[in-house]
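Hi support team,

I've been running sequence recovery on a batch of backbones for a student project. Most finish fine, but this one hangs at about 90% for roughly twenty minutes before it completes. I'm not sure whether the input is malformed or the queue is just slow. I've pasted the structure tokens below so you can try to reproduce it. Let me know if you need the job ID as well.

Thanks,
M.K.
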């Protein structure tokens, strides 16, 4: 018997199959093989048709069943991960009234900024743990202001994962974690953020019913079976946004545990039991997947680093090198600190953790007589690693403790230099796991039974690749990091 997991991204939909008894991954498929299209009518806008997500999800389900010869009755539960912060609005028939305004759409920035100013930093920090910013609530306010005819026909708004669950079941609901990612949860009152709805003039009845993250949220109905080829009655047991789900996939559930990803951009996502939000303009705070009303809070603190893997990829494309492996070998011949060369890696737009400054990527202290591309490769890896540590320092200043970091076996974390630099500077080990968000979502379907020990064991047994331990000789790393920070401060203080 199996669980199936869906990861609804803005580029593709991934579908994973795991064995119910062991949590072992059977396989993962992706639809489409190329990237999904995105509509940008104006600069800064980004929209997708929610029906496209559903069609690709159905196609992926059919493909994985065929590939592994699995029947619909052998799949006993569904888990859903999805791109965060998107807005889907439907009428009373459940039909989308417009395309989804997705996570990277920036049209509602001014609306969120004004709300932050009008409501006050103290209110937003203590009750929302965030600025309303460009999140789902602000996007819904944009629709009300700019598309009033559409707004008056809204029956419910949903997040992308809510819509996929609805297509399976014809039931509309959401989770506390989901509402918090839309900045629609009041953590002080432990309820829907009605004061923000009132401030925006949004109707409270548009909020879907709330269900637990790990429970029988709804079941596949007849139409869902016809379109997806999953059996009617199959329960949807789990739903979460992609970053909380990625953390869960890496067994990051308790205070002091941190999940990291090092792709084109980098993400550090740590779990705390504190409702403190001193850095609400630089750090996002969400109800983690295991947040429960009336219990000790589980808050996910998310910090995004735009300038991460994209920089190393740029070097691959523009240096006279053939592969990342060659770059890593070159870098390994250079001592810690890259002989003074520093790379400031923030060349992928505004950096929220630098208060939205755009400072670009910079190479400093390069001596044209002594330094080679090997120094640049080492300095690049160190610079990206230092940016992660810098982000961790911000999270620590916001009250988060760090006991362990866990990361996927992808991109930057395959580099020993990168991983060892971070592990040594944060003075904690980095555990590497070979998993994906879709696999994590599939495994999470089992958590409706409440057995978190079994869930954690399945990750350790099936996915653990290696652990990077901090080096005892920290001094060279500390010196290099302090030099890097001085260079960064020279730029940011201009």
């Amino acid at each position: 018997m199996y669980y199936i997991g869906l990861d609804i991204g803005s580029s593709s939909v991934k579908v994973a199959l795991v064995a119910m008894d062991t949590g072992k991954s059977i396989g993962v498929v992706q639809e489409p093989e190329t990237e999904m299209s995105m509509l940008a009518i104006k600069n800064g806008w980004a929209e997708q048709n929610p029906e496209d997500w559903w069609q690709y999800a159905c196609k992926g389900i059919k493909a994985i069943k065929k590939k592994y010869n699995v029947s619909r009755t052998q799949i006993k539960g569904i888990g859903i991960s999805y791109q965060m912060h998107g807005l889907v609005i439907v009428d009373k028939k459940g039909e989308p009234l417009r395309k989804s305004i997705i996570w990277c759409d920036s049209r509602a920035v001014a609306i969120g900024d004004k709300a932050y100013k009008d409501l006050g930093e103290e209110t937003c920090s203590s009750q929302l743990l965030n600025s309303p910013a460009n999140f789902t609530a602000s996007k819904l306010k944009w629709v009300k202001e700019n598309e009033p005819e559409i707004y008056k026909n809204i029956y419910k708004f949903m997040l992308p994962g809510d819509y996929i669950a609805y297509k399976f079941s014809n039931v509309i609901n959401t989770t506390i974690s989901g509402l918090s990612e839309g900045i629609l949860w009041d953590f002080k009152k432990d309820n829907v953020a009605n004061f923000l709805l009132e401030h925006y003039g949004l109707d409270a009845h548009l909020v879907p019913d709330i269900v637990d993250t790990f429970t029988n949220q709804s079941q596949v109905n007849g139409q869902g079976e016809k379109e997806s080829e999953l059996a009617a009655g199959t329960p949807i047991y789990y739903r979460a946004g992609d970053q909380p789900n990625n953390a869960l996939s890496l067994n990051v559930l308790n205070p002091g545990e941190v999940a990291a990803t090092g792709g084109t951009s980098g993400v550090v996502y740590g779990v705390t039991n504190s409702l403190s939000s001193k850095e609400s303009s630089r750090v996002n705070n969400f109800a983690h997947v295991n947040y429960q009303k009336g219990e000790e809070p589980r808050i996910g603190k998310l910090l995004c680093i735009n300038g991460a893997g994209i920089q190393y990829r740029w070097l691959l494309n523009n240096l006279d090198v053939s592969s990342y492996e060659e770059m890593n070998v070159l870098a390994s011949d250079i001592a810690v600190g890259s002989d003074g060369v520093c790379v400031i890696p923030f060349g992928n737009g505004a950096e929220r953790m630098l208060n939205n400054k755009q400072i670009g990527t910079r190479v400093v202290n390069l001596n044209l007589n002594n330094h080679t591309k090997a120094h640049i490769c080492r300095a690049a890896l160190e610079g990206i690693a230092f940016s992660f540590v810098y982000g961790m320092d911000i999270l620590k200043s916001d009250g988060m403790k760090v006991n362990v970091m866990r990361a996927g076996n992808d991109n930057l974390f395959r580099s020993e230099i990168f991983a060892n630099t971070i592990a040594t500077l944060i003075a904690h080990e980095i555990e590497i796991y070979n998993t994906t968000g879709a696999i994590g979502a599939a495994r999470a379907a089992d958590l409706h039974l409440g057995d978190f020990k079994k869930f954690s064991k399945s990750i350790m047994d099936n996915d653990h690749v290696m652990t990077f331990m901090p080096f005892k000789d920290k001094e060279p790393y500390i010196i290099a990091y302090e030099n890097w920070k001085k260079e960064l401060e020279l730029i940011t203080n201009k």
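--
Follow-up from support: It reproduced on our side and the slowdown came from queue contention, not your input. The chain is about 35% helix and 20% strand. No action needed from you.
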